[in-house]
Request: fold
Amino acid sequence: MNEKKSRPMKSKIVKRFPKRMSPGLTLVEIMIAVAILAIVVGIAYPSFQRLALNNYLKAAARDLASDIAGLKERSLAEYRIHRLRIDVNNNNYVMEACTNTGAVCNGWNQIGQKNLLNVSNDIIFTAATNTTTLRFEPRGTLNPADIGTIVLQNMLNSTGTITLNITGRSRVQFNLL
Reply:
């Protein structure tokens, strides 16, 4: 009789991974991957740091511009004089409302205060800031004596300039380094 001897079938797993081939990574391969990653992070870190510092400056300038617009709106809505006082030396500003309505003010109530240090430690008002008190009339216009610019600066010497006009509108421009 012609009988064939049956051979045991090799499993499919053994065929995919022969004994001489290891499915894992060697220590040398892992060390090379970590070294490449460290080089890429080392090159990219200064760019990310610069981006973060400039984003803090943008946030502070836009926040101040938003507060200016808010005071204008409150002046119109309440028919009351509002003002924003900038303390250049302490890098903060105070928002105040007149105690009475109309065009003459007999006293001030503080309605808010913000410090630039809350956004970032390195943002300051520069000496180029030529207006430190903004007074919004009950019509929502800015007092003509208060028209000017407010300049914020960070440690990279990037600046954010807020330009004010008589209508109370503000425009923000950035010079990022």
Q: What stands out?
A: The chain is about 30% helix and 25% strand. The mean pLDDT is 87. The CA atoms of residues 87 and 176 lie 24 Å apart.
